[in-house]
Specification:
InterPro entries: Split_barrel_FMN-bd. The protein is of the alpha+beta class and 147 residues long. Helix content is 30%, strand content 39%.
Length: 147
């Protein structure tokens, strides 16, 4: 079956990325197994940005092999259930002051956290830059004539 007709438009993808705050991030662990976790994200500068404690295994794994994935769904948001996007991404781990200075205030404003407290923790910022996108809108499949 050709799913091309069920993909989100670029504008719909942008809208979903703007309203959702959590994504699933996947990477390969040191044994080569795919693993993932849910993280709060900011989509800015054409990339997903997340934060992690520096000593988390995912940080070392993403430095060693930056190939990664990000998935976002519309679940729990006003857009309704059934929309999703995923991206093959390349990760860059940042621990510089200039990244921290723009990221933590933006992230904490969106997540309702204290930026100063977060910045004092031993954290890094992870940029997940999309290389390819995939998307799906279940409403288009269920009601194809309304689009």
């Amino acid at each position: 079956m050709d799913f091309t007709a069920f993909r989100l438009t670029d504008d719909e993808r942008t809208q979903l990325l703007a309203v959702q705050t959590e994504c699933a991030v996947g990477w390969l662990n040191s044994d080569g197994w795919p693993v993932s976790t849910f993280l709060t994200y900011v989509f800015e500068r054409d990339a997903f940005w997340v934060t992690s404690f520096r000593d988390r295994p995912r940080v070392a794994c993403l430095v060693a092999d930056p190939r990664s994935t990000v998935a976002v769904s519309s679940a729990g948001k006003p857009l309704g259930h059934g929309r999703m996007i995923s991206a093959r991404t390349l990760a860059v781990v940042h621990d510089d002051v200039s990244t921290a200075e723009w990221f933590y205030p933006r992230f904490c404003q969106m997540a309702g956290l204290d930026a100063a407290a977060l910045a004092r923790q031993d954290r890094v910022v992870i940029e997940l830059r999309p290389r390819a996108w995939n998307s799906f809108d279940a409403k288009r499949m269920l009601h194809p004539l309304s689009y």
